[in-house]
Each structure stands twice: as C-alpha cells, then as structure tokens.
Amino acid sequence: MEHLPLFIKIQHRPCLIVGGGAVAARKARLLLARGARLTLVAPALSGELQALRERFDWLPATFAEHHLDGQFLVVAATDNAEVNARIYQLANRRGLMVNKADDSKRSAVIFPSIVERFPLQVAFSTGGGAPWLARLLRARLDVLLPRHLGALGQVAGKLRRQVQQAFGNSDERRRFWARVQDEPALKSLLQQQDQAGAEAWLRQAMTEPAAGEVILVGAGPGDPDLLTIKALNELQKADVVLFDQLVSEEILALIRPEAERISVGKKAGHHSVPQEQINQLLVEQAQAGKRVVRLKGGDPFMFGRGAEELQTLKAAGIRYQVVPGITAAAGATAYAGIPLTHRDHAQSAVFITGHCKQDGEEPDWAALAKGRQTLVIYMGLMRASHIRRQLMQQGLDGATPVALIERGTTARQRVVRGELRELGELAERVESPALMVIGSVAALADSLAWFNTRTGNGSAAAIGRCG
C-alpha cells in the first residue's frame, strides 16, 4: 500500500478545489462538513455548488498557480485531464497535499469512503483500484452499524473514568458495555438525543450487580449471508458460545475470537451431549456472570428444543433473549426453487418433524394426506419409509412429487427429486442434514431451481430423479 491512512483535522484550514462540476461538489460537501475554510476556482458553478455558495469563497476564473498560495489541501477536479495534471504537478512541487480527482492512483491524498455515526467515523479505501468495492463495503457497514452508536460513543467518552473506577479490569468493562449497549431504554434515550438521561441511565446500570445472560440465537439454514444482523452482533459480544453440529464453519468464524466455544454436538439422531446436560451448561455459564450465546441451526423455536432450554433458564432465574433465524423450511426450499405455497398447487404449508419424542403420539396422517398443501418434514430421513406408508394408506397419491434437499443453502446443496412411492429409496441417496418436501410444488424445482446452477454444482449432479 502506497497510502498511509490518517485522520487529519481540517477544521479552519485553507483548502482549494479547482472545478465547478459534480465531482467538485462531492469534495466540497466533505470538506465543508468538517469545517474547512474552502476556496473554489471555476469559471462557473453547478446547481449543487450554487446551493452551497454562501459557505465558500468563489473565484470565477481559470486556474493560475498563485491560487495555490497559502493552501493546506488542493483538489484538482476539473473536466480537463491536462489541467488536473498541471495542478497536481505545481501543488506537489510546493509540498502541498493534493488530490487528483480523475486519477486517484497518482494522488498524494485519497478521499476514502466514509461511514459516519458522529463522532465515530469509519473510513476505508481500495487505493483507487476498485471504487465499486469501496461503495459496496460502505453500504454494508452503513447497515451493520446501529444509528445510535455515535451518540453512545459520546456518552461513553464522558463516563470513561467512572466506568474504569466501577469495573476493575478490561474484561469486566467489556462485559458491561456488551450488556448495556443494546438495551431498549438506553437506545431510546440516545435516539431522542437525551444525553443527560442516557448518562443517568448508565450510572445506574454501573451500580447494578453484573448478571449472566443467555441469548438463544438462530444461525439460519447454513449460508452465512442469511445470518441476521442481530445474530452477528450477539456473536461478537459473547463470552461463550454453545453450538450444534448443524452450524457451519463459516458462521462459527464470525464468533468473537476471544470467546470460549463449546460444541454440544446436537444433530438429528445423534446427541453427543444430552439435552439435560446442555440445559445445565447454560445455567452454569450464566450463573458465572457470562454472556452466553446458544447457537442453533435454523430458527431456535422450530423443532430446535429452544423453548425447553428457556424453561430451564426461567426456572433458574436467568435472563434470556431470543434472536430468531431463517428456518430451513423457508431457506432451503427457496434455494431449491420450491415455493411453499402456489395458487395452482398449495394454499397452505405444514411443518412437521419426523423425529418424535420417545413414546410420542403419531401425527394426524389423515390430515397430512389431504391435497393442495405442502408438507415440510424436518429430520425425516430415518423414517422415510414409514412416512411414505402412512401417507399412502391415508389416500395420498403415490405419484405426488417429493424433494429431498441436502445441506440446503450451502455450496454443497443437493436436491433429489422423485415421487412419494419412491421416498424410502430417495432417502437412502441423501445425507443428513436434509429437508423433505412433499406436494406438487416440489415438481417446480425442475423449472425454478437457481442456486445450484449459479454455484457451479451443475443441475445434472444436483437435481435428479430416482429410478
């Protein structure tokens, strides 16, 4: 990298922009927003610059070398490459900071992409090589950074010494800020620009005993881009994360590096850690004052036993939150090109689990065998033959389309298509985790599939029929 990232105080410093068009206007807005003493040299001004006219000195002339006298920063932003090159050469000889707007690679100064949450600024650059990438990153960061973050930073700065006195080490201080930064009451005060109220709220929070908390987080069906922003935020604040086997490595890589990771190994048909032990681990970690994330594939309340874990926490008097995730029924079917409902095929969708509680009652197969609905069956591979038999005995046509979606939404997604009468044989061709879809909408995967063809897996290998 040829450029060194620096934050320079530009307030009250003399700055010169040569040019009167759209590029000059963009640079002028940036400099004026930071209090620069701005002079603009151009024979004429664009409408946008005319609207800013009272905020800078305008010299209605063509550029001359004497315009550089006494300047701190110079921006060459005309529509003439030769003029810009001359401005750059003259300013460079004088040792001035100069930006050549039409050639950032040869500029001594680059204007970075900026995301602002006053007084917080995040600035980044691609060195002029890929401005589209800088714009993409700016858009993503603009979504990720909460709007109240800057105001929180201001209040935190005022209370920094008090927080240091209240909490003996950096780890305790980090836990304090992780606990309070997203509290609705504090966010409301900050959004209302009530700094005094926010300071009072934080002072009170400092006196309250530090208590552990469990956040039940849905990791989605596999694609890390489907993780919610709130889920990502919680992964970055966690002291410890208990995760299942269904959570992908890409998502685990987003956990705060210093956080402890505990694999509890839950997967359909295989529980390396019994549920009762998982419940106890959650209680013990929270009682130790830690911020605990319980990370579960899909949505934690969709056949994930999340409610059972919360009942244990509630009985132990432990605070908890729930961050929903995209469930496999929505994510995997969408990536396979299978709509859950369609006015020509199904007016409803039913989600069921093929993995029942021991000695549990069987589903209402008669109701499930009715037409014009979509059945989505989680954890059904091991009972595929039983499911086929029960549905057909209740009158569901053996030619009903079915689809098994293996590792849905990931680069290894595979969709196997067939008919209900073939369900047992289809299941033998698929590995867990897999989702089972039964209904005429499953046939639409042949025409609506999009994900496997884009990832390069190839439709012939990814989508096939049994037989």
TrEMBL record:
Active site feature: 244 (proton acceptor), 266 (proton donor)
Residues involved in NAD(+) binding: 22-23, 43-44
Region (Uroporphyrinogen-III C-methyltransferase) location: 212-467
Pathway noted in the entry: Porphyrin-containing compound metabolism; siroheme biosynthesis; sirohydrochlorin from precorrin-2: step 1/1; Cofactor biosynthesis; adenosylcobalamin biosynthesis; precorrin-2 from uroporphyrinogen III: step 1/1; Porphyrin-containing compound metabolism; siroheme biosynthesis; precorrin-2 from uroporphyrinogen III: step 1/1; Porphyrin-containing compound metabolism; siroheme biosynthesis; siroheme from sirohydrochlorin: step 1/1
Catalytic activity: uroporphyrinogen III + 2 S-adenosyl-L-methionine = precorrin-2 + 2 S-adenosyl-L-homocysteine + H(+); siroheme + 2 H(+) = sirohydrochlorin + Fe(2+); precorrin-2 + NAD(+) = sirohydrochlorin + NADH + 2 H(+)
PROSITE patterns associated with the record: SUMT_1 (PS00839), SUMT_2 (PS00840)
MF terms (GO), sorted A to Z: NAD binding; precorrin-2 dehydrogenase activity; sirohydrochlorin ferrochelatase activity; uroporphyrin-III C-methyltransferase activity
Keyword presence, Isomerase: no
Residue span, Tetrapyrrole methylase domain: 214-423
Sirohaem synthase dimerisation domain segment(s): 148-206
GO terms, biological process: cobalamin biosynthetic process; methylation; siroheme biosynthetic process
CDD domains reported for this sequence: SUMT
Record's protein name: Siroheme synthase
Organism, as annotated: Zobellella endophytica
Encoding gene per record: cobA
